[in-house]
Amino acid sequence: MSEHMTAVNGGHTPDFVKQMANMHHDLLVIMQAAWIEWKHGKGPEAALEWIANTLEGPGLIPDETAPYGKEAQAFYDLNRAEPFPACFCGRPSNQLWMGKGFCSLRHYKEGRAATTGGSHEYMSRHVGSALYTTPVG
Q1: Cα–Cα dist 17/10, whole Å
Q2: CA atoms in the 13 A half-sphere facing the CB of 130
C-alpha cells in the first residue's frame, strides 16, 4: 500500500476500511429491515427483534443503570461518536449553536437570549418565528 493511501485511510489498510464500511452498511440494512418488518411484516415487536438480535449478540444492550440508560434521546446524545458540548444544565445536548450545546428548545432559547441580550426583535430575526414567538425576559 502506498504512503498516500495509508494517509487517506487514516493509517488503516484497505481491508480494514472495507470491513468497517461493510459493518456500517449491514447496520443500516438491519435498521431498514426492521422498518420493513414494522410497516409491512409482523409489526413493531417483530421489528424490535431485528434490533435486539443485533445488540444482544455482541453484548451491546444498554445497561439501564448507565447514565441516561432509560432516556433514549439523552443516551444517544451522550454516546454518539462526536457528542455536542453538554448543555449549561449539565445534560447531554442535541442542539448546537455557536459551539454551545443545548438539551432542549427551551434551553436553546435561554442560552441564545443570554448571549444576544434576549431582545424579541433580534430573536425573531435570527432564530425565526417557528422557534421563537414570545419575548424572552
Answers
A1: 9
A2: 0
* CB-based contact 67:78 (threshold 8 Å): yes
Q: Is the separation of the CB atoms in 94 and 88 below 8 Å?
A: no
Tell me the percentage of the chain whose pLDDT exceeds 90.
71
DSSP output for 44-62: HHHHHHHHHHHHHTTT-SP
* Residue position matching grid coordinates 493509517: 11
> Which range is least confidently modeled, 17-31, 32-46, 65-79, 104-118?
104-118
57 to 32, 49, 75, 88: CA distances (angstroms): 19, 12, 20, 37
Q: Report which residue type is found at 127.
A: V
Residue whose grid cell is 480494514: 16
For the entire predicted model, the pTM comes to: 0.69
Per this entry, what is the length of the chain? 137
